[in-house]
Amino acid sequence: MEAGIVGLPNVGKSTLFNALTEAGAEASNYPFCTIEPNVGIVNVPDPDLDVLRAHIETEKVIPATTKIVDIAGLVKGASEGAGLGNKFLSHIRDVDAILQVVRCFEDGDVTHVDGSVDAIRDVETIETELMLADLQVVENSLQKAKKQSRTGDKQAQRYLAVLEKCYECLSEGKPIRSMSIDDPEDRKLLRSLSLISAKRVLYIANVNEDEVESGNAEMAKLQAYAAERNSEVIPVCAKIESELSELEPGERQEMLESLGMTEPVLNKIIRGVYHLLGLQSYYTAGPKEIRAWTVRQGSTAPQAAGVIHGDFERGFIRANIYSIADLTAHKTEHAIKEAGKLRVEGKEYVMRPGDVCHFLFNV
């Protein structure tokens, strides 16, 4: 699962990517500095792992990870080939969710592709291009679907109905994510189209260093815009986060304290990406390793076991589970069992955040 960092040129995408991944991707003050997407794997900050490590002796701790992709800056007319055009759009089509960096700071030394700072205009520029690209896909698919539906094929007729709903939505200037489709089969057909505006979005407001806590007028407009669309805005000063990522742990903590921060904002962004993708963690813990495993929200115990190995899912018998809260309260796994807090769960159990699991299986 991966999230793509997108935005207009010169809004701080690559600077943010460098801070997130410490990958050293080039960041310069000119459009299309990023041409091919940079890709980084980042650890998901997780205080539950610290709790597990404090109570269980182990050789190593392995956090969950997620993939971040830094995609080239988009300009108006991209859906018609302007800038990097179709290349940009194909890259964004490949990711599972969108991190849209929006410039909310004034700086005469950093040019803006449209000549001025306007958060809503910038967001709408990108949203429009994504919807126009989707409209092309839907229109092309509609022609074929209409021919197939005339044969009386039920599946073709169903597909046509989904396409017509998409066409109506996009023609009204609304992204596909705003549509309501309840039927699981229709949702599956919609996913097969890989429409860009169907992807969930997390907005990153790039502000000056003295505005991360207080915000500013542009960020306030962006927050109102996002709230109307059931999305979230995370304020960040990409420049500060980049500087923090280059420091040693001790120096980083000193800088955080001097800024009145408890942790880098990047931690919140990474956790936000993780949840935006519909993911959660469960844990296995023992003397060899403590590890966070990634599952989709709503996964059952056998599906979670299958993340470790397919045989675990095929031969699933049961799972012995306790929570992080149980470990905090009782200190050891033995004490948890003695207190009757070790749960035995079967195939229908739906995983909860903070579950620590031992799976029993037989193949």
Explained architecture:
This protein is α/β, with parallel strands linked by helices. The chain has helices spanning 13-21, 47-55, 85-93, 119-149, 154-171, 184-192, 217-228, 238-245, 249-258, 265-276, 301-308, 310-314, 324-330, 333-338; strands at 2-6, 38-43, 61-62, 65-70, 97-103, 201-206, 232-236, 279-285, 290-296, 316-323, 343-345, 355-361. The strands form three sheets. The chain has a six-stranded mixed sheet, with helices on both faces. Strands 3-9-8 form a three-stranded mixed sheet, sandwiched between helices. A three-stranded antiparallel sheet has the order 11-10-12. Strand 8 and strand 9 form a beta hairpin. Helix 1 (13-21) packs parallel to helix 8 (238-245) and helix 4 (119-149) runs antiparallel to helix 5 (154-171). The radius of gyration is 23 Å and the shape is flat.
Main features:
363 residues; alpha/beta; six-stranded mixed sheet; three-stranded mixed sheet; 14 helices; flat
State the distance separating the first and last CA atoms. Answer: 29 Å
- The strand line-up of the biggest sheet is 2-4-1-5-6-7
Give the SSE order as H and E letters: EHEHEEHEHHHEHEHHHEEHHEHHEE
Overall average residue pLDDT: 86
Computed over alpha carbons, the radius of gyration is: 23 Å
Strand content: 15-25%
